[in-house]
Design a protein that fits this description.
Layout (H helix, E strand, L loop, with lengths): L25 E2 L9 H7 L9 H18 L5 E5 L3 H12 L5 E6 L2 H12 L3 E6 L8 H11 L3 E5 L1 E2 L4 E2 L5 H7 L3 E5 L18 E5 L11 E5 L1 H8 L11 H7 L16 H17 L1 H21 L16 E5 L6 H12 L1 E2 L11 E5 L7 H17 L3
Parallel strand pairs: 1-12, 3-4, 3-5, 5-8, 8-9
Antiparallel strand pairs: 2-10, 6-7, 9-10, 11-13
GO biological process, one term: glycine biosynthetic process, by transamination of glyoxylate
GO molecular function, one term: alanine-glyoxylate transaminase activity
Protein name: Alanine--glyoxylate aminotransferase
């Protein structure tokens, strides 16, 4: 290449002494949430070779801690470098073949997305829907599995767009009675509300890193029961390469007698951040963490009553403790209200989506942001916003 070579396009970027940065907010929506300095430090470390002993050590540590957070001894427990949606898609593609029957219990946007995925892959889907704020009974789900002769039941544990928590205990044995596996989207509920993968005999779980786990988005946390692993190995057709979880399981040293082999380049920085976030949970303890989220959610509900705001989910027993959907008073434009709160208090709150679209804002107390003093600060901001808009 000669020194006189010319380019077709010039860069719009100009070198500057100004250091790149962006404004920081208190993230009080449905996720992501703010991360601790400890997790930030892990992100800032130098990259590692994805097949180095150092990388394998981080993977092994993260896997062991993840088994604790999932409350499982499943050997097939791993981390996949994709979003929560990618994790749900991977579950469908690794456990089902085209034409297989699946029941999807929809409680909001995330169930609708799984339905969309299932239809794209030409699965035989029975979608279930409930009125906003309601959850499914064991009997309703059993009848659906039985009538549809389903090979998989897919449910969302904590539904951040509707503010509900679906009860799971007792559901897997019902599924197994009919030869059906139970898959759970725990992307937002992990480390917020109790989840016992082994005790409740759940077959597949997908969880997110950017909610109560307290790491950045971009990874999903997965575990599969021996039943699910057996089903996966019997699949007629392999999933797309990137979503094929068996090679990823080999990379994470999940299977006895199979030497680690490279699947795709993993981000050492992201994995280290997730490792540190999981370590923080292990150090606090799951039960104290569950109790902390529950007590702060209930404190928030009490403070909402004091300023005249109400929860979108009327029945307290149906409410998710991580994200509360708060009704927007009539006469207030939701987006104007949220912009005001963001500009004055530097608090980012998520607008409604799916069942709460144009009805309720979604306020999350997740991970390190689940603290009583933060509840009080958010209430102060909401009260100020109500006064500003004449309510």
């Amino acid at each position: 290449m000669s020194a006189n070579e010319t380019l077709d396009y010039e860069s719009v970027h100009k070198k500057s002494a100004k250091r790149f940065t962006h404004k920081e907010y208190l993230l009080m929506g449905a996720g992501p949430t703010n991360i601790t300095d400890r997790v930030l430090k892990a992100l800032s470390m130098q990259c590692l070779n994805p097949i180095s002993a150092d990388m394998y050590e981080i993977m092994d540590q993260a896997k062991a801690m993840l088994q604790y957070v999932f409350q499982t001894k499943n050997r097939f427990t791993l981390i996949h470098q994709t979003s929560g949606n990618g994790g749900n898609e991977a579950i469908l593609l690794n456990l089902l073949n085209r034409g297989d029957k699946v029941v999807i219990a929809i409680g909001g946007t995330w169930g609708e997305k799984v339905l969309d995925m299932a239809q794209r892959y030409e699965l035989d889907v029975l979608p279930l829907r409930k009125p906003p704020g309601e959850v499914y009974s064991l009997k309703e789900l059993e009848e659906a599995v039985k009538s549809h002769k389903a090979r998989l039941l897919f449910v969302t544990h904590g539904e951040s767009t509707g503010g509900t928590l679906q009860q799971l205990e007792g559901l897997a044995p019902v599924c197994h009675k009919y030869g059906c596996l139970l898959a759970v989207d725990a992307v937002v509920s992990i480390a917020v509300d109790p989840l016992f993968v082994d005790r409740w005999e759940i077959d597949a779980v997908n969880a997110g890193t950017q909610k109560a786990i307290g790491a950045p988005p971009g990874m999903c946390l997965l575990t599969f029961s021996p039943r699910a692993e057996k089903r996966m190995r019997e699949q007629k057709k392999r999933p797309p390469y990137y979503l094929d979880l068996l090679p990823q399981g080999v990379y994470f040293d999940c299977f006895d007698g199979e030497s680690r082999t490279y699947h795709y380049t993993f981000s050492a920085n992201m994995l280290s951040a997730v490792r540190e976030a999981l370590a923080q949970i292990c150090e606090e303890g799951l039960i104290p963490m569950w109790q902390r989220h529950k007590s702060n959610a209930e404190y928030f509900w009490k403070r909402l009553d004091e300023i005249g705001l109400t929860s979108f989910v009327e029945k307290r027993e149906n409410r998710f403790h991580g994200v509360t959907c708060v009704n927007v008073p009539q006469g207030i434009d939701q987006m104007d209200f949220l912009r005001y709160v963001k500009q004055k208090f530097e608090i980012e709150i998520t607008p409604g989506h799916g069942p709460t679209l144009n009805k309720a804002m979604r306020i999350g107390f997740l991970g390190d942001n689940s603290r009583p003093e933060i509840v009080d600060f958010v209430i102060e901001a909401l009260k100020d916003g109500l006064q500003h808009f004449g309510k």
